[in-house]
Design a protein that fits this description.
Elements (H helix, E strand, L loop, with lengths): L3 H16 L4 H8 L3 H8 L7 H11 L3 H5 L5
Helix pairs in contact: 1-4, 2-3
């Protein structure tokens, strides 16, 4: 399905961010991006580079693979 990985990454970013008690704004600030960009990432609307996925994993303190696998696996 087209865009499936984008959706998975977005869902995982949202889940981990919420578990950490971070707002979209706080995580966006830590990444140096605008809150609306992070919102689009979480909705699966952005085609991320691998480097961006690495940065997200680093800021969220998770293994990058945790962002690439659907919840429940």
């Amino acid at each position: 399905m087209e865009g499936e990985l984008q959706r998975v990454v977005g869902e995982q970013v949202r889940r981990v961010r919420a578990e950490r008690g971070l707002s979209q704004e706080a995580l966006a600030d830590a990444l140096g991006v605008h809150r609306t960009y992070l919102g689009a990432v979480e909705r699966g609307e952005r085609n991320l580079t691998l480097r961006t996925v690495e940065r997200l994993a680093d800021r969220l303190a998770v293994d990058v693979r945790d962002l690439l696998e659907p919840a429940g696996r």
